[in-house]
Amino acid sequence: MRGVLAVRIFSLFAIICLISGGIMNFSNSDSEVMQQQYNERVGEEMTADADDSSLEEIFEEVPDQKSPNDKSIELIFLGVGGFSSLILGSLLSEVFKITVLVSLLTPLIAKGKNRNDLLTRGRILGYLEANAGIHFSALRDSLGLANGVTAYHLQVLENNGKIISWKDGKLRRYAISEISKSKLENIRNPIMGTRLAILEILSNSGRIGLSNSEISKKLSISRQLMSYHISELRQSEYIDATSNSKRPKWIVTDLGDNALNSSYTFLN
After folding, report:
1. pTM
2. pLDDT digits (tens, 9 = 90+) for 244-257
3. Contact 260/196 with Cβ under 8 angstroms?
4. 265/268 Cα distance (integer angstroms)
């Protein structure tokens, strides 16, 4: 999966910054007292041997430098900031969260794999077969799995060619690899907006059907716009006329029912 290597390198950099900053901070805390005592002794000796004007010249020549303590704090902030950015990105994007889980948690889960792995993957495959296009969080919640466990098994199944996935905005959706091209196309390009509303209304009307004027009144849209969407739905074979009259009533076809169910799965 793209980004896995980048996340691991970024996380390693953050860990190195935290460890280095912590070591430096620990070492500095032990040496600060000794350094302060040494500076006091040197200051006393310089005060005894030099007048005020010479002291000013000496201190003016001393360049401003960052103390080791400042450097350790910067390293710690870099490490904390790195992990904070990973957490924030995971909260804002499901795709990024899956990348982080695969990068950081799945190697640990893989080492502790057990006999239940095949059963868990079987459950995932069965659920994806019945709910093609479901996104990561919905799949995780439906099967009652943890984030890391879900990401790990999905990665294994995808690497073995059992499932496919694609990015959908901030989400990542999954389906079995044996899904038909037509069904996959419907899932990846679901019926939405006005056409989805038309299919829902016609589906609720059953075999009685509704005319253009009846549908337009229910949706409060113009007849011209209604005629356009009806024409598109009919061309896709999602609806069919109940008669050959000039103003027929429309009903949903089996293909339209499948598209409607796919759209529900896609939006959930």
Report:
1. 0.50
2. 888 889 999 988 88
3. yes
4. 5
